[in-house]
Write a structure and sequence with these properties.
By secondary structure, the chain is α/β, with parallel strands linked by helices. It has 2 domains: 2-148 and 301-349, Periplasmic binding protein-like II (D-Maltodextrin-Binding Protein, domain 2, 3-Layer(aba) Sandwich), CATH 3.40.190; 151-299 and 371-410, 3-Layer(aba) Sandwich (D-Maltodextrin-Binding Protein, domain 2), CATH 3.40.190.10. Helices cover 41% and strands 15% of the residues. The protein has helices at 9-19, 23-27, 48-61, 77-87, 101-106, 156-161, 171-181, 197-210, 224-234, 236-240, 252-260, 272-279, 314-324, 327-332, 355-363, 372-389, 395-410, and strands spanning 2-4, 38-44, 66-72, 93-97, 135-136, 139-140, 143-148, 151-155, 214-216, 219-221, 266-269, 284-287, 298-299, 301-306, 365-366. Helix 3 links the parallel strand 2 (38-44) and strand 3 (66-72). The longest helix is centred in the last third of the chain and has 18 residues, at 372-389. The N and C termini lie far apart (53 Å). This is Sugar ABC transporter substrate-binding protein.
């Protein structure tokens, strides 16, 4: 096994200087490697420690194959994966967001993996919505391995200090609690307004879905009222001062750091954040996302394994994907929730801190919008939310702009 990326940075520097190409591309090309005996896997850096263990086991069971791992990061992977697929020189296996998969399918960039599903990987064993996100009328183009959505994470000590007994359960409580919590160096919440566009848009979409928007066949159906309600919370909160102005400068990771450092009292985040907060000694709580009159909705999303249509070793890629898709391996590689039902029964997925996220996922979520036109529209929604946060436009005007763009790209809402 060869591990490329951050773990081999010093090895790659000289080659990158000589060749004058980007490090990620340099790392993905093994000098003199035999494509029939090597499988190149692009894997997110947060999965790398466990992925390394799994690859060692895979190679022991498949001595005719060697796996070359290339680390990707959340802030650059979407562009790098798109460029690699368009270039005709992609890796053999890619770990990628399910919600971006249909964009690649539409371009003909992925291999149909329908043949992998059967007795060993039964379709009935996947969480509802997971396979829909990576399937169209011609086939299934990925194997999902992780499925989750955000929910509310809050600092119990800061809530107690503000005289608040528990987490908000409605939007009215959310705003009232936020105003109480915003004092001195502490602001109620923050939003990831400087990271990947889909991270911020996903927060907006959750509130819009709670206010009446819907997802039909992968297409979000928005309306003025739902968009305005979402913008009033996600963008208006910054303009009004109960969400941190730092939102304009932080991504998901940095929002979590603001929370750990006691600068914000609550935020919408993934269950994978909670362990880091517990390790930091925080008195942390989790709860369902507030909605207008009770639990709100969230768009679930997940990660899956793709095999590019132009993979150099498609047979080896399928063998690696089959291995990674085993329930035990799937459970090891995710600290959120495995996409296969049979992999999700372990106690670590259902303790007191993770159970609200599981309830959000199981009872108060919908499959993600994944139409390529919506993916293309994400940057527009992202910039509109930022404009509301900066006070350059109002939630009502922002909603009208989003609706006009939605009608243009997605078709009028029926």
């Amino acid at each position: 096994m060869r591990i490329r990326g951050r773990t081999a940075a010093f090895i790659g520097v000289t080659a990158a200087m000589v060749l004058g190409v980007a490090a990620t591309i340099a790392y993905s090309v093994g000098t003199g490697r035999d494509p029939s005996r090597t499988v190149t896997w692009w894997v997110p850096n947060w999965d790398e420690p466990v992925a390394t263990e799994l690859v060692q086991e895979f190679e022991a069971q498949n001595p005719d194959l060697s796996v070359e791992m290339v680390e990707t990061t959340s802030d650059t992977m979407a562009n790098k994966i798109s460029v690699a697929l368009d270039s005709g020189d992609p890796p053999d296996v890619i770990t990628e967001l399910a919600s971006r998969t249909r964009t690649y399918i539409a371009k003909g960039s992925l291999a149909d993996l329908s043949d992998l599903y059967g007795p060993d990987i039964p379709r009935s064993d996947f969480i509802p919505g997971a396979l829909d996100a990576v399937t169209n009328d011609t086939g299934t183009y990925a194997v999902p391995y992780r499925w989750d959505c955000v929910a509310l994470i809050y600092n119990k000590d800061l809530f107690a200090a503000a005289g608040i007994a528990g987490p908000p359960t409605t939007w009215a409580e959310l705003v009232a609690d936020a105003r109480k919590l915003t004092s001195g160096d502490v602001t109620a919440t923050a939003w990831p307004m400087s990271g990947a566009a889909e991270d911020l848009v996903r927060r907006y979409l959750g509130f819009a879905l709670s206010a009446g928007a819907r997802v039909e066949n992968g297409v979000p159906r928005l309306d003025l009222a739902s968009s305005q309600a979402a913008l009033e919370i996600v963008g208006g909160s910054v303009a009004e001062g109960w969400a941190s102005r730092s939102s304009l400068e932080v991504d998901n990771t940095e929002v979590r750091e603001l929370f750990i450092n006691g600068r914000i009292a609550m935020y919408l985040g993934g269950v994978f954040d909670v362990q880091q907060q517990l390790d930091a000694g925080m008195n942390v709580g989790t709860a369902l996302t507030p909605g207008p009159d009770g639990p709100g909705l969230q768009a679930a999303d997940g990660w899956g394994y793709l095999v590019p249509a132009e993979a150099k070793n498609p047979a080896g890629a399928r063998r690696l994907v089959e291995f990674l898709a085993r329930p035990a391996n799937m459970a090891r590689l995710t600290i959120t929730y495995p996409a296969r039902i049979s992999a999700g029964g372990a106690p670590q997925f259902h303790d007191q801190y993770r159970q609200p996220h599981y309830e959000q996922l199981a009872e108060h979520s919908v499959p993600p919008p994944n139409d390529p036109a919506w993916v293309a529209m994400n940057p527009f929604v992202y910039s509109t939310i930022q404009a509301v946060a900066l006070g350059r436009t109002t939630p009502a005007a922002g909603a009208r702009a989003i609706q006009a763009e939605s009608d243009r790209l997605l078709g009028p809402t029926g």
